[in-house]
Structures are given as C-alpha cells and as structure tokens.
C-alpha cells in the first residue's frame, strides 16, 4: 500500500539517518549493550546532525518546524537497524513539549540552544516508588523559601529514562496539598539542574529490555531550585502533564509499530537464509502463513500509527484516540515479534540476534506511558461506559 504520510524531505532525512546509524551506531552497539547505556558523547553527534532541533524555533538554533514526522522516521530507522539511540528519545518526545508550552522567553533563551546542541540533555521525572500510574499520589515536595528566591525540593523518583546522563530534569513535585475536591491540585513542574547540591542519582536500573537507555532512580535532599526554574504556573502541573500525554502515547504507539515492521524484516531475512531438512525455512507452508499473518497485522498497525501521526500534527489527536492507537499497536507488536522470534528457533533466544533484543525492548510498551489496562479505561470512558 502506498503511504502518504511522508514527503521528499522526510525521505531525505531517512537516508541521512540510515547512513548515520550504519556508520556511528551499528559498529559499536554491542559495546553500548554491554555497558547498559549509550555514551554521553553520542548525544553531541545527534545534536550536530540536527536531530534535537527539528521542532525548536530558529531563533534558538533549531529548524523551526512543527511536526512529529521526522521523529516517526527515527522510530522506523532505529527499529529497522535493531538499535536504539540510548535515552535520547525522552529529550525530544517528552521534555521539549513542556519547554515549548511553558517556558518563558527568558527561560527559552537559557535552555533551548543547549538543548539543540546536546550540551544539556533533558529528562522527565514523574514516576515515584509506590505511585506508578497514580501521578496525583506523588510525595515529592517543593516548598518556597521564606525569602521567595527558591524552592526546596525533597523526595525521590524512579524509572527515569535518561536519568543518568541528564543535565536538567523536569521534576514534578507538590507545592501545595491536594484539595478535598481535587487531589490533582498542587503539583508544579521545575527544570532542575542535576549539578545542584542535594541532587543525587541512585541505581542505574537493570532492565529486561532497552539496555542501551540509561534509566535511573533519583533522590532530592533539600535541593535549592531557583524560582526562575519553575515551569508554568504553580499548582497547575497535573494539567500540563495531561496535555502532553497524547503525544507521548503516540510516540510509544508509533515506535511499537516500527518494531513490529522490523521484526517481520528480520524474520523474513532469517528464514530465507536458514536451511532445515535440506531446504530454506521459508519454503515451509507454516513459515509463509505465519509471516503473511504478521505482515497483515503490521499493515493495519501502520495505518493506525499513520492516522494518529496526522491527527497529532494537526493538533487534533484526542486522549482516547492516542490511547486506542497505543493499545492496538503495542498489542500487535507483542504478537508479531513473538511469532517472528519463534521462526528464528533457538537463535531467536540469543542476544546477538536483533530479534531477541527487539523482543525484550518491546515488552515495556504495554506498561509505560500508561498500561494497556489504563488505555482501556480511557477508551471505555470515551465510549460513555
């Protein structure tokens, strides 16, 4: 089927990214995998390539575009090569929307040029031990000092992707107690400098998948955050978080579809090369039927992911539509990648084969950004149930 979502500019970007991955990532990816993270210097290369600045205004060194289609190309090309770009995805997909939406002109001048170059990598710290999807239940606090010059931050966060290499982290914290009629009230967002006294990185978490992305626990003990680093208005943070959830869930949805598409590519290549009982695995009817069924599911997931992308770029992607896209494509990817691994036989269980890494990387898609069960709740509510 002919896709209409990408134009010549996107395809030129695809060629550039594909060449970059082959030259800069594939030769060293095993080292990243063993180390459990991409090296910090790699993010400077992404900055030089212009990856971080696509949606940043030109006055701050960006390209000044307003589209997620180049991010979509990145998802497809990294999946195609069986690699990831470390924890850099949160820098653009999660952190940038808050800076564009909430930062004052003064803040943008301080933050965005370094954001574009990779000099300052950003992460988002929302999840806490014991809260998970219940964001309103967070315990981290930020109390305004008596002289009104800074907030004092105390608390802990976990599962923070990009948390090891981050230079600034958007931290969600309680500046006021929740109201009886609104437990979401009282949360504020801060752009916290990770070099601040009292800020510490705990464990770099040992994950099942996404081994090259640094995911960490963070702790804050009397961290002084200047009032100039408050993002948006005090106590309105929950609403800001909800505003950007649609784009985050689209990103997970599109990434999952891209992984499923890559899995079919890996499996097709493997079964054509591997011989069993004197003939290629691809010659068996079961192989053909399994891959054909996988391809049909990928075609459907691509249509859903593309439709969500167009809606997101038009500013029309609703919470329920984003939830539906995420639920569908992540469940498709789960089924497709499992079948494609099975077609690899024992080699599919070996980390030296990209399908094994893809299998592990994919599993979190049905958990983070809101679990599949939460997606069903959102969709059911939208249905009036």
UniProtKB/TrEMBL annotation:
<dbReference type="InterPro" id="IPR006091">
    <property type="entry name" value="Acyl-CoA_Oxase/DH_mid-dom"/>
</dbReference>
<dbReference type="GO" id="GO:0050660">
    <property type="term" value="F:flavin adenine dinucleotide binding"/>
</dbReference>
<dbReference type="GO" id="GO:0009083">
    <property type="term" value="P:branched-chain amino acid catabolic process"/>
</dbReference>
<dbReference type="InterPro" id="IPR013786">
    <property type="entry name" value="AcylCoA_DH/ox_N"/>
</dbReference>
<dbReference type="InterPro" id="IPR006089">
    <property type="entry name" value="Acyl-CoA_DH_CS"/>
</dbReference>
<dbReference type="Pfam" id="PF02770">
    <property type="entry name" value="Acyl-CoA_dh_M"/>
</dbReference>
<protein>
    <submittedName>
        <fullName>Acyl-CoA dehydrogenase</fullName>
        <ecNumber>1.3.8.7</ecNumber>
    </submittedName>
</protein>
<dbReference type="InterPro" id="IPR046373">
    <property type="entry name" value="Acyl-CoA_Oxase/DH_mid-dom_sf"/>
</dbReference>
<feature type="domain" description="Acyl-CoA dehydrogenase/oxidase C-terminal">
    <location>
        <begin position="235"/>
        <end position="383"/>
    </location>
</feature>
<dbReference type="Pfam" id="PF00441">
    <property type="entry name" value="Acyl-CoA_dh_1"/>
</dbReference>
<dbReference type="Pfam" id="PF02771">
    <property type="entry name" value="Acyl-CoA_dh_N"/>
</dbReference>
<dbReference type="InterPro" id="IPR036250">
    <property type="entry name" value="AcylCo_DH-like_C"/>
</dbReference>
<dbReference type="InterPro" id="IPR037069">
    <property type="entry name" value="AcylCoA_DH/ox_N_sf"/>
</dbReference>
<comment type="similarity">
    <text>Belongs to the acyl-CoA dehydrogenase family.</text>
</comment>
<keyword id="KW-0274">FAD</keyword>
<keyword id="KW-0560">Oxidoreductase</keyword>
<feature type="domain" description="Acyl-CoA oxidase/dehydrogenase middle">
    <location>
        <begin position="123"/>
        <end position="223"/>
    </location>
</feature>
<dbReference type="InterPro" id="IPR009075">
    <property type="entry name" value="AcylCo_DH/oxidase_C"/>
</dbReference>
<dbReference type="InterPro" id="IPR009100">
    <property type="entry name" value="AcylCoA_DH/oxidase_NM_dom_sf"/>
</dbReference>
<keyword id="KW-0101">Branched-chain amino acid catabolism</keyword>
<keyword id="KW-0285">Flavoprotein</keyword>
<dbReference type="GO" id="GO:0070991">
    <property type="term" value="F:medium-chain fatty acyl-CoA dehydrogenase activity"/>
</dbReference>
<feature type="domain" description="Acyl-CoA dehydrogenase/oxidase N-terminal">
    <location>
        <begin position="7"/>
        <end position="119"/>
    </location>
</feature>
<comment type="pathway">
    <text>Amino-acid degradation; L-valine degradation.</text>
</comment>
